[in-house]
Specification:
11 helices; single chain; 2 domains; Tetracycline Repressor, domain 2; about 0% strand; about 70% helix; Arc Repressor Mutant, subunit A
Length: about 230
């Protein structure tokens, strides 16, 4: 219990320093003083400063992720993704230092715990759209496009003075991305939906096809991925 309490105290102290002075303010010395611990304690619990920063990111991101995962889902999966986009941008503008900590330093092939949790939530939203037969591209491509556009527009707005931020900018980016990766709801999309949304929808349903063997599902997955990638 004491170890957990010490860990939480260190994370909360680092989070407060981050909010007040940005990443530069989160030095080992400053965190140690604010949390009332010795520097070796920080390294023993978190391994290194990167481990501490990842813990701060997860701590600050937790409330935001709860707001996305505990709210009632919209019956329309595209509308649900639209709301998720707005929550993401709103979080970044409300907590710019924390947002920059989480997304400002990409590490190829490495995801922080906060990034991994957020990616899982986005993947679930995209999967619902795929299952509804309304995805124009593969789930992976849709998730990457939504993520990159959302992060990019959020950083653009963070970099502007508050009185220069155009709220329509995020809306225009959001609708452009949604138009690129989703179709209209049936029956409007049915006549010209084409094979790609159908392939993506079937790809999303593969885990439920228990009548097929693992080998058959693997082969079908390969075929469907090829169809989904054909633009």
């Amino acid at each position: 219990m004491e170890a957990t309490s010490t860990r939480e105290r260190i994370v909360e102290a680092a989070a407060a320093l981050l909010a007040e002075g940005g990443r530069e303010a989160v030095s080992t010395r400053a965190v140690s003083a604010a949390a009332g611990v010795q520097a070796p304690t920080i390294y023993r619990i978190f391994g290194d400063k990167r481990g501490l920063l990842d813990a701060v990111g997860s701590h600050g991101f937790a409330a935001y992720l709860r707001s996305k995962t505990t709210r009632e889902r919209d019956p329309d999966p595209v509308a649900d993704l639209r709301r998720g986009w707005d929550l993401h941008v709103g979080f970044g503008l409300a907590h710019p230092a924390l947002y920059t900590l989480i997304y400002g330093e990409p590490r190829p092939g490495v995801e922080s715990p906060a990034q991994r949790d957020a990616a899982a939530v986005l993947a679930d939203m995209v999967r619902r759209i795929a299952e509804a037969g309304r995805l124009r591209v593969s789930e992976q491509r849709a998730a990457h496009l939504v993520h990159s556009a959302g992060v990019g527009i959020t950083f653009t707005l963070i970099g502007l003075a508050p009185d220069e931020r155009d709220p329509a900018l995020a809306e225009l980016a959001r609708e452009s991305v949604l138009a690129a990766v989703t179709t209209d709801p049936a029956p409007h999309a049915a006549p010209d939906a084409g094979p790609v949304p159908t392939a993506v929808a079937l790809r999303a349903a593969l885990p439920q096809l228990s009548t097929l063997s693992c080998g058959e599902r693997g082969l079908l997955r390969e075929w469907l991925d090829r169809v989904a990638a054909d633009r």
